[in-house]
Design a protein that fits this description.
Elements (H helix, E strand, L loop, with lengths): L2 H15 L5 H11 L7 H11 L5 H13 L3 E4 L4 E4 L10 E5 L5 E4 L2 H13 L10 E4 L2 H9 L1
Parallel strand pairs: 3-5
Antiparallel strand pairs: 1-2, 3-4
Helix pairs in contact: 1-2, 2-3, 2-4, 3-4
Bound molecules: zinc ion (2 copies).
Amino acid sequence: MSVQQQLERAERLCNQRGVRFTPTRRHVFTLIAGHKGAVSAYELLDQLKELEPHAKPPTVYRALDFLLAQGFVHKVESLNAFLFCEHFAEHHPMQLLICTQCGNVIELHDEAINHAFEHQAELHGFAITSQSIEAHGQCRHCAGENTTS
Ligand SMILES: [Zn+2]
Ligand SMILES: [Zn+2]
C-alpha cells in the first residue's frame, strides 16, 4: 500500500472517530510512513521543517502523541524512536525485532507471546500498565551479507 493510500485510510478513520487530522499531523504521518524502519523525533523535526519552516520540537511531539493515540505509529522504546504501523486499523499485540545493522524493524503480532507475558505478570500479582517486547540483532538480509563477504 502506498503512503498516499495509507494517508487516505487514516483520514477515513479520523473522520469515523471524530478526531482532527490537521495538516501537521498529516505531514508527520507521511514522513513516518515514508521512512523505512524507526525514526527519531529529531529526524522528523528536520524533515518537517522543510514543509513547515516554523516547526519546533513541541510541534512534532504533539503530532506524535496524536499518531500514537490513534495507533498509526508505535513507539520503539529501546531506540526512543517511532515506527509506522501498517496494521493501524485494528488493535493488535506487538513485538519488535530490530536490526542493529540496517535499522530495519520487523513487527510481529503474536497473541501467544503477549498472553504468556501477561500470565506471568499475573502470577506475580503485577498489573501491567504499559509494555514493550523488543529484541535487537541482525536481520536475514544483513546476516546474508556477512556470510558472503
Ligand atoms: Zn502495529
Ligand atoms: Zn539488517
